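Suppose you are handed a protein chain with no further information: no name, no annotation, nothing but its sequence. What can you learn? This example shows the usual starting point.
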Amino acid sequence: MIGGPRVRELMMGVEGLALLRNAIDGDEEFLTARVAELRQIIGSADGVGSGVTLAELDAATGYAAWAATYDSKPNFILAVEEPVVESLLARISPGSALDAACGTGRHTGTLVRYGHEVIGVDQSPEMLARAAAKVPQAQFRVGDLTKLPIPDASVDLVLCALALSHLPDVEEAIAEFRRVLRPGGRLIVTDVHPIMVLLSAQPIFAYQPGRLGFVRVRPHQVSDHLTVFAKHDFSFISCHEPLYAGPLPPGGYEESIPDAARAAWSGIPSAIIYEMQAPRWD
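A reasonable first move is to predict its three-dimensional structure. Written in structure tokens, the prediction is:
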């Protein structure tokens, strides 16, 4: 459990990043306001950020707690990731599709709408229950990204959204995607951009009143992904890096310092989306 002072330090870090990014070209009024907020955060033991707990949750616990509100709260990563994914899916012919780490089925419904026969796999029964209620046309199975409950060469498309950064290494999951894809099959992988992760953009959410939690994400570099894609003979089609466009995470510490938070993240890539193709013949 990470205590209230750590939340205060996160706030100080956002203020500092806003200052760093605007020290050369920012106007004096903005910079003065950031310094004043920093002094308030540092100097007040019972001020903003104190008394709020921040817990690191494992994936099972975190997503079980997050399932009930995942679809109802604004999310700055989803806001830029979803339009890119939809534009890619609109160009792919209907077939059999795997939504790996499907969560509440936010992309499963899009796949069904574009005519795919879809299997959704996720490690969280709570998230899958939400997905099944939302997209009854799809099949859903409990499973792990590194050991998918899917036969070899059985799907034409694999979509994996915002999940690989939870893993220590991307190798096993990408090998599994290659295993289940038919020759010439398409792979779409999205993730939190490593720049965001390196700047400590952990997915923080309110999992209980007055309690913030996160499920850790790791900064896999672009080269990490591309090296493993090449190792498993995937061909590159496209890569997209949409920039932060808001909104701020609701119920989190950044809502208390909105000007600093927007200035800290503005223009930074929020997500990364890869489109790859499996070889047509083994």
